[in-house]
Amino acid sequence: MPRSIPALLLLASLVAATANAQSTARERQAARDSSAGAAREDAGSPSDTGQSAAAKTKTVISGFVLDSMTNQPLAGATVLLSGTSRSVTTDAGGRFRFELDSAVNGTYTIGFFHPSLDTLGVTPPPRQIQVRSGGENFVELAVPSMRTISYSLCPDTSLTDGRGLVAGTVRDAANDKPLDSVRVVLMWTGMSVGNTSVTKVPRAVSVLTDVKGSYHACGVPIGTRVTAQARTKTQRSGWIEVDIPEGGIGRRDFLIGTRPPAAIAARQATDTGAKAPQPLGSAVLTGTVTATNGQPLEGAQILLLGTQLGGRTDHNGNFRLGGLPGGTQSIEIRQIGYAPQRYAVDLAPNKESKVTAVLEERAVVLEAVEVAGKKGSGIPGFDQRQKHGFGTFITRD
């Protein structure tokens, strides 16, 4: 499979960075090989023991890649080593390992790339390492810090100080191809402080995707509920909640789909009074809803936000929703006694998507009940007539 442009650029930089060092190292090695060959010719055939030892001698270059943005190992990164045609992929723990049959002492350049960094347009700088031939060599690689990435993508400091960055890609729900010139809108509620009052003001920022379907939006506040949507004139996603971590860089990818004219007409009919909601597409969503202890929740309600489509779970906590529009959509799941949860789901036409939902029990706090008591029955004339003995009186006693 052909490498992406960032990978080719990184490989070219690795080769250029070490060409001189490798050339010199090869010349030295060639000289040593020539001398060793001459010595073998003089001494006759080499021993089997010598050949076995040489065959078993390998140079090992190992290490791990750290995602500085999350302070977690970076899985799925492709690591390249200059002077070789080899590349390796980091495992779930961010670890990688090269085993080279032939390598000379010297300076090598090592680098890596990752799809998430390609989306941001960030290429981590390569590192030069000293390699010992026939030994173990360890190296640590890391993604640039959030601040470094944020300032490189948002040079205007007014959009970075105390604010966040949201980045991702937009693809067609039908064929998964990246889309150019898609508008991504992010909205939130801000506060406007006046001389005598504080009012809530809607805020928004919008950007367009590039030819690779990538986007990044600067100036998004941290710690504020933000919703986002990707859309064109004919395609769109649902409104999705975006989480921006403390570091200030959030990621949200979108699928956008087209609703057939028949589905739009059916929705209008539903809005004007039809009882049964009409399908808006051909996507299907299945899933399971459980409590935190793993117990299936029967009768939980699943709603596709922005539509009238929904359903409920069966006795095993399973559900199936059909006739859904393609694209990234938001569902809300509710059950009595549990806190509602929202999930973003990627839906594709004529395909089935799955989601696993876990609801947390909600503590029910009742308001205090005050009980007031007073002497007497509170019935007009009752206590006075009882006092004078007029009539028959029935009391609690």
Outline the structure in words.
The chain has six helices and 23 strands. By secondary structure, it is of the alpha+beta class. The protein is elongated. Strands 1, 2, 5 and 8 form a four-stranded mixed sheet that branches. It has a four-stranded antiparallel sheet with strand order 4-3-6-7. Mean pLDDT is 80; it is low at 8-12, 14-28 and 34-55.
In short:
The protein has 397 residues and is an alpha+beta fold. It contains six helices and 23 strands. The protein has helices spanning 5-43, 48-56, 115-120, 146-153, 261-271, 382-388; strands at residues 59-67, 72-73, 78-81, 87-89, 95-100, 106-113, 127-131, 136-142, 163-172, 183-193, 198-208, 214-221, 226-231, 240-242, 249-251, 254-256, 283-291, 301-304, 310-312, 318-324, 327-334, 341-347, 352-359.
Give structural attributes.
397 residues; alpha+beta; 4-stranded mixed β-sheet; 4-stranded antiparallel β-sheet; 6 helices; 23 strands; 20% helix; elongated
